[in-house]
Amino acid sequence: MLSRATIDRVVRAALDEDAPWGDLTSEYLIPASALATADLVAREPGVFAGGEVFAAAFRLTDPRVDVRLDVEDGEFFIPGAVLAVVEGPARSVLAAERVGLNFAQRMSGVATLTTEYVAAVSGTTARIADTRKTTPGLRAFERHAVRMGGGHNHRYSLSDAVMAKDNHLAILAQKHGNLTESLSEALSRLPHTAHVEVEVDRLDQIAPVLAARSGGRRVDTIMLDNFSLDDLRRGVEMIAGRAVVEASGGVDLETVGDIAETGVDVISVGALTHSARALDLGLDVRLRVD
Amino acid sequence: MLSRATIDRVVRAALDEDAPWGDLTSEYLIPASALATADLVAREPGVFAGGEVFAAAFRLTDPRVDVRLDVEDGEFFIPGAVLAVVEGPARSVLAAERVGLNFAQRMSGVATLTTEYVAAVSGTTARIADTRKTTPGLRAFERHAVRMGGGHNHRYSLSDAVMAKDNHLAILAQKHGNLTESLSEALSRLPHTAHVEVEVDRLDQIAPVLAARSGGRRVDTIMLDNFSLDDLRRGVEMIAGRAVVEASGGVDLETVGDIAETGVDVISVGALTHSARALDLGLDVRLRVD
Amino acid sequence: MLSRATIDRVVRAALDEDAPWGDLTSEYLIPASALATADLVAREPGVFAGGEVFAAAFRLTDPRVDVRLDVEDGEFFIPGAVLAVVEGPARSVLAAERVGLNFAQRMSGVATLTTEYVAAVSGTTARIADTRKTTPGLRAFERHAVRMGGGHNHRYSLSDAVMAKDNHLAILAQKHGNLTESLSEALSRLPHTAHVEVEVDRLDQIAPVLAARSGGRRVDTIMLDNFSLDDLRRGVEMIAGRAVVEASGGVDLETVGDIAETGVDVISVGALTHSARALDLGLDVRLRVD
Amino acid sequence: MLSRATIDRVVRAALDEDAPWGDLTSEYLIPASALATADLVAREPGVFAGGEVFAAAFRLTDPRVDVRLDVEDGEFFIPGAVLAVVEGPARSVLAAERVGLNFAQRMSGVATLTTEYVAAVSGTTARIADTRKTTPGLRAFERHAVRMGGGHNHRYSLSDAVMAKDNHLAILAQKHGNLTESLSEALSRLPHTAHVEVEVDRLDQIAPVLAARSGGRRVDTIMLDNFSLDDLRRGVEMIAGRAVVEASGGVDLETVGDIAETGVDVISVGALTHSARALDLGLDVRLRVD
Amino acid sequence: MLSRATIDRVVRAALDEDAPWGDLTSEYLIPASALATADLVAREPGVFAGGEVFAAAFRLTDPRVDVRLDVEDGEFFIPGAVLAVVEGPARSVLAAERVGLNFAQRMSGVATLTTEYVAAVSGTTARIADTRKTTPGLRAFERHAVRMGGGHNHRYSLSDAVMAKDNHLAILAQKHGNLTESLSEALSRLPHTAHVEVEVDRLDQIAPVLAARSGGRRVDTIMLDNFSLDDLRRGVEMIAGRAVVEASGGVDLETVGDIAETGVDVISVGALTHSARALDLGLDVRLRVD
Amino acid sequence: MLSRATIDRVVRAALDEDAPWGDLTSEYLIPASALATADLVAREPGVFAGGEVFAAAFRLTDPRVDVRLDVEDGEFFIPGAVLAVVEGPARSVLAAERVGLNFAQRMSGVATLTTEYVAAVSGTTARIADTRKTTPGLRAFERHAVRMGGGHNHRYSLSDAVMAKDNHLAILAQKHGNLTESLSEALSRLPHTAHVEVEVDRLDQIAPVLAARSGGRRVDTIMLDNFSLDDLRRGVEMIAGRAVVEASGGVDLETVGDIAETGVDVISVGALTHSARALDLGLDVRLRVD
What is the ipTM of this complex? Predict the structure, then answer.
């Protein structure tokens, strides 16, 4: 899912950022002939993500470095687990270490936090989905990590789905008077492949949204924004499978289980990406000079 | 819809391609002080598209060149019509001329061909849609031109919609035995915002496709591939507004009207972008040296 | 002639355009272990061009995909001919398919149209040449296709040859009074390696153009713009091998043979690149899951 | 300190990532003539950082959008405070909203967390410094945020300072037997402008490190890694101003105050950048259509 | 002739190279409000080139800096002359100073050395031309400097002219036996706009080269490589204006005058760009803090 | 020290510059099957630098070309020495020749000039260092060459070290009255890893500069600008190993030995990079067609 082109582009930029004109320490203190073996070790439990990205940091620094991934993306690990083994010229291993770790720690942090949300809704039919609140430049990586943690992706960008919020509905209403009619008209203009999601604040907005139709199209998803649990339940009943039901607002690890129990299909959680902390992974390096 | 960032990036590359180290002719034969006024003139009738792109060729060559667009994107024009007036330092106007024309001619060619398809389905509810058969590097421009010609866009890329064809259905069936079940299972894994289109070859595939369900999702669009007019009509009846109906295959200006009469919602036409010819537009330049 | 650097840069951009964050269909519907064999098949007769570019679409998506070209650039093929065979991981083959086809169809379209022009002038000494009316961003590819169709390239860009048209001559004349003198003076300033072409509208302009001289330089090519067949013939006689004679204007498949018979050396044809349609090539894919 | 070139490059890439082919919602649901006024509002207390970056998201989307920053980078704010006011075409304001927020939230998160560490060491002479554990691609932004929170920057990259750790010392020792001698020899080869920091694990390593000399150079900084508070105190005494003393390891908001009291000069804190969460800032948008 | 796009691209890269994360000195030691006025002063006599490039270093660092060029490219100056005046925020002026000087010193160095060669051939009809022995990445700049010094440009790149040397002639001969025939055949395949230059080592090669013909084409330039003055003179006579005569080899300021006296049209001098030294220009900066 | 990423990026740009659309001569005059063997031969004595860069020009043109380096960077060679042997397809070898030479000649020129300065100070403890007066875009390459010639690098950029000159000192003094105090205050704000160098014009400035202190920091290097030999000697005595002593100004091959004898640690020489001439290296090519 992460194309090699994307990985290479982003990792290369990170390596440039971290060593615009080489690694002084390695170059002046480590002989060119020194070799290193390094274990990527978990210092806390978690779910791994970013194996290919971690490996790319070394591969793009020096093709002679070999990285063996012992754990796959999406696997759980315990503290002390060896997740990968890196082997090659010591200068190159040390030069790529920090960049490789920065990616693996962040991506594993996102995956691990996602699994906590996923666990909290287990037994329900709700999926945990990410949002556009991602780190600028790392969206593809963070969404991959969400999937590796058992979550699902929401729209990738402003270009692939429509999200009509109160502001938009107000403007549409101003034009047509009637919400059903105005949404139907919008459906008639929108590309037929654009997913259409409408955010509602009140239960009485659901019926007119569901009634919108144009050329085989309907509103695909209704987002119930900041609804009480009771209202979520009522919303799910009213929609009755005629659209995806998404809950949003006030979601955290305490509340997400109850929200899922209401029967909603999707719970979107900004925190997955905007507030995950880096997981504590370290590289244990052993050098040898022959 | 065409962001300035996209226009600037693509036009700048085209200018570099056309003058990697300057315009020898202008530099050696035209005095720096010479001024030019140039009319963008239609040599045949058509629909205009690419005004902002045409203007960018001059603006990015020299900010002192002024381009006044007399016709908006999407407007029809007759032969001899003046579509835009360019004014500024002669060297710059001449240096940007060919690149500006290359864009405007191609984009107007696409828009004009699109209007012919749109006209051929007028009076029906079918929309004319483009495909991914666009010129590499110019997709955003060509899709803009399609819209300017009254057409609609299909999915932009492989990343924003799913298109399950015979090959995919065969593989899914191999896994689950049953098409409805396998599509339902796929819906349960796919991002809920991904538009799902399924291509069918026979009428008896429609019912199982329509029956697929997962978490408020259904198949969004059914493409009837290479169906006879009778079968298209029957397909539309069977689908009955429960999905978008798209017709594809064997579409040309002769056949498109009859296809539209069957009641399908979308007719996708590769020719809009892969076989439009450049429209004949010219630049009438008047130089003056004071 | 198409350097690998150029191919890679342009094809990579096209792949990014067509799948900014992956191919959803392949990723969600095709198992990672599935393999594909695909034949590039001609659906109409033509001349092939773009084999290396087609192959690059697959290679740059996934180095494990193997592309065997069965037909070389420049070869003629009949409908049903297998032009290439693609083999590798199914996800990658399907992800690269459209981009590979978009290039091969367009380039083969240009090559095929070129052969028609070349055939129409066979038996004469005229060469068919392209112009700068190419698709922005694809000039190197389209000019390669022209050569593969038996045509020749004209100047690549504004930077490598001078083309003095009526506007330029008027300005030069204003400065010097005399055309021969003014062209001689321009030759004395121009880089000696810059090809100098002068466009004339009337027979009486030929002699003064031919008379221009400076430091071993003369005008290299005289373009007879929109001349009647009789005037072309007279122009060829007057020039008598002392410059390349180029005919331009009103050239199509009907007229090009007669124009060539007048004895001109070069006939430049904008249509080769601005109005070629994509050739109908398809990819027949067979998937297998072990 | 954040150059406009850096801001523009990074923000432009983030905008492209978030809208590769435009904002469908704005384009189809908001009239081109609609205007928006939007307040950047704090939903929790904190320290602002990233004002110029936030503004760039709007400026680079549409130069007609005006952003007035009401709070400067480094200023503290209370919940409800209006940090900036954005005004301009509604389509553009809405298209840039998420990207602008993503930057401002993260940068303010880093600045705010930094102030907590800085407050915890107030009254001491220790400075709080960041590390290379930054988000790939955003190092310059995050280090700016650290400074805005009252922290200091550590080395920017592998290229501008040497950090000799146990591994390096072991290799040096292997070559020379003697640590002082081997460090002196390294100083004699290193660029004289490269800051040299040596990490020690034990108090008895300090004296030989301090004794190293070459051509006016000495070791600039000694990092006491995972030292007890007592050992830190003793280390500070032994070094006695002859090098910068840096403490590292086991630093959190609980421990940092005591560490600072030992008299160390620098405390480096990876958490500043690798574990700051996004601050809760929102954009309150008001649309109007005339 | 230097397009703004080229200047901006190259200067921006140089600024990034010289300050990847800002100018520490200015940022920490100069108040943001300080202003600077700086004179670009000549410390030795010479010919100016690179004014626009020098100015761009400041403009691209900070659009508020104003650069007034007091001397135009191509003008001679004496020691002490003020060539430009820079005014603006002190931090920005100081940050851009070195990059601006690095360009102006090098370009003026090339222009000045060129004038020495041009002066040495004054009174003859020979032009001094540059070669492809330019600094990688700076070709457009150095060729501009050559022109500003009164020299002329040779071919820009491998793509815009053919240069057939002994190796090529040997291979051609192997194929055809006869040099005239083989060159004629090559002319029949080459783009008619490609300048064709043939390098000869002996006088007896001139006649067969001159005899080559195809479709109005002939060999454009004959390079007499390492000829004695006598042989140059004889070569000029034999060619008699039927091709440009270029002398090459053993050219320096001592010999160039005599070579020019032989009547050759072009003398190409690699030293213009590969061995020019930077001219001594300095920036006298006056700061003020209000 | 030169990372492969840097080499590839810069060499690729140089190849593009030299052949934007291929090498016409090779493509039209050399059969695709021809092979070449080429020796890189020294035409004058010198010190080699740039072997990897030279090789990259061929490797990036065509991976089938093999380059064997017979001399390592930093080795001395005599006229006639074969430094490398290139073998592969003739078209590719000829296409890359000029770019490969342009790099190797310049880098070897810098290395060779550096060895002359290094030789002139042999027997002293002074190191020869480069400056920021490098060719824009080639800094990493030229600094590598300086090291290969036995020299040392100074600060790489404005971002990694502080250089306080008279202007800065004047401003600091204005703020604090007292130089020691103002430098101490600056040290307290500067990143502790930023090397701090202060330029002084008079001996009486040394004591206050040496007295500056903050948190284990002091001024790292004192540059004695344009000092007489006597004053340099006195400066060295006064500084007495408490900072690096750098001499600058009026340095050439005549004076550098005496300057070194004064006991300074570093002598920075702009001429190493701004005035080195390209060394005369040539490629002797032998073609064969089977």
Answer: 0.95
